[in-house]
Amino acid sequence: xxxxxxxxxxxxxxxxxxxxxxxxxxxxxxxxxxxxxxxxxxxxxxxxxxxxxxxxxxxxxxxxxxxxxxxxxxxxxxxxxxxxxxxxxxxxxxxxxxxxxxxxxxxxxxxxxxxxxxxxxxxxxxxxxxxxxxxxxxxxxxxxxxxxxxxxxxxx
Amino acid sequence: xxxxxxxxxxxxxxxxxxxxxxxxxxxxxxxxxxxxxxxxxxxxxxxxxxxxxxxxxxxxxxxxxxxxxxxxxxxxxxxxxxxxxxxxxxxxxxxxxxxxxxxxxxxxxxxxxxxxxxxxxxxxxxxxxxxxxxxxxxxxxxxxxxxxxxxxxxxxxxxxxxxxxxxxxxxxxxxxxxxxxxxxxxxxxxxxxxxxxxxxxxxxxxxxxxxxxxxxxxxxxxxxxxxxxxxxxxxxxxxxxxxxxxxxxxxxxxxxxxxxxxxxxxxxxxxxxxxxxxxxxxxxxxxxxxxxxxxxxxxxxxxxxxxxxxxxxxxxxxxxxxxxxxxxxxxxxxxxxxxxxxxxxxxxxxxxxxxxxxxxxxxxxxxxxxxxxxxxxxxxxxxxxxxxxxxxxxxxxxxxxxxxxxxxxxxxxxxxxxxxxxxxxxxxxxxxxxxxxxxxxxxxxxxxxxxxxxxxxxxxxxxxxxxxxxxxxxxxxxxxxxxxxxxxxxxxxxxxxxxxxx
Lengths: 156, 502
Fold this sequence. Notes:
The structure holds two protein chains of two kinds.
Chain A: H1 6-25, H2 41-63, H3 74-94, H4 96-108, H5 116-137, H6 149-153
Helix pairs in contact in A: 1-2, 3-4, 4-5
Chain B: H1 2-17, H2 20-38, H3 44-55, H4 60-85, H5 96-105, H6 109-143, H7 147-164, H8 169-184, E1 186-187, E2 194-195, H9 209-227, H10 246-268, H11 274-288, H12 301-316, H13 318-324, H14 330-341, H15 349-353, H16 355-376, H17 380-386, H18 391-410, H19 414-431, H20 436-459, H21 466-469, H22 471-501
Antiparallel strand pairs in B: 1-2
């Protein structure tokens, strides 16, 4: 047997794996009665549906020709993910300005096309826009800058 | 009687939509819609998700009018990029690039843009009337639905979404199941038990709709767009001579009529929407034409038909959402999200309980379409200039707006972590060629279906035959089964053929 559709096989494995995990985690959810179906009924049904779909996709990967897997673009994926995580971790602790600068710079590192002089100007514009819109305009309760540096750096 | 009711309803609608405030939100929606429609790589789904948190600050009428404006506005904007840059600004204007860009290269960008806008306006007008006529009887029908009927109707909706989805049927099914499972995360409202929460308190209320959508549509799209940067070759930054010739108009009338009809019908079907409509309309025109070989060389019919069709479909896809409370595509899922933020439960009761909102939204669509013709034609130069903003900067801005948008929902930084997670998940699914729209429909419909299933089982005292005994429910399930058969048969046959060849 030869794998003829790498993409189908990967998608099938993903679905089946999620289905199996749901089956495992949901094993002790109460099933209830036919008249009052419990918490565990729909998860059970869905888990088997996912496993079935995954199996069929897996089978298809061996029987018919399909698209193969393509390369992951690691750089944008990692940098954009890091950018979002950085924003989440920094915004409450160090304020909007620093959170924006760090996360936007990480995002800019996600593509080799970034021109740094242009980016610096744009980032400054975005910070002014962000602070103006969300802190002064919508009055969101976010600190603009760290209140006191030592306290903010202690990572409560 | 019927006609009178129609006029009273539309009058009520216009009285709501014509208030200064609502006109303003309609304009805002149309402008944002055109802008993101023009920009390739920024779609209406992600934009609406971005703005959902902001709509919390608006009155419900204004919020929904604006969100609707973004969707049909994007249909207008998408054609501008398709014609001038040979890039689809939106997925629904892919076919417009074929003849529209050729017309632009021949110096006829003006007529192409004008016909696209006028065709869209005509389609929008017809679709608005169609919604106003179709909504009341459908709502009346929906009010007779028992829980079992609702369950079966949603099943049918999901099957339709699979059948009409591009690409693999199996993958679409997998995505629906996956979405439904994600929808179950959190506390079960009936029993109070938690499911799949891993004891993380942020998950007790379930995965938020907005973080999920922004991750899968917003963040994942940035990742994939940064992977292969597009080149944008403007055919010319100046567009002169907007007026189509008499010949242009004569050739366009029939395609516009056909595109509007076809698009309007396809838009109602779940999973259909604007993309399918524009493709089908182009194919039909090519087939009906006496000179099919000339398509792709700058035929105005190839612009008129798909552009009318995608706008008609964009609008009629509101029908199932407004009357039944069922999202027929990802954008309608956003509209439902917008309603829920304001505490409005989508369904047939909306028309009776909130007639101002209901008819106001419908009336605003026509006003919005008129604004769009005005916005698009004379102001075309401004939209074209927007294309000069490179994606490397847009990406940074979109990322920030996603983060701050999700944060502002509950002032919770943890929800921003959820978009990071779903961004990677969305990218993975994109790489596996799994369309995210069915996932979203499953996510919204899964929990609803569970509620209706439980009610039906309770009413029938645990007898599962209830789903086949009620005529409406049986009809829906029968159609669903037939559709499934149609999709599966050729696939099975082909799979067997290839297997036998070995």
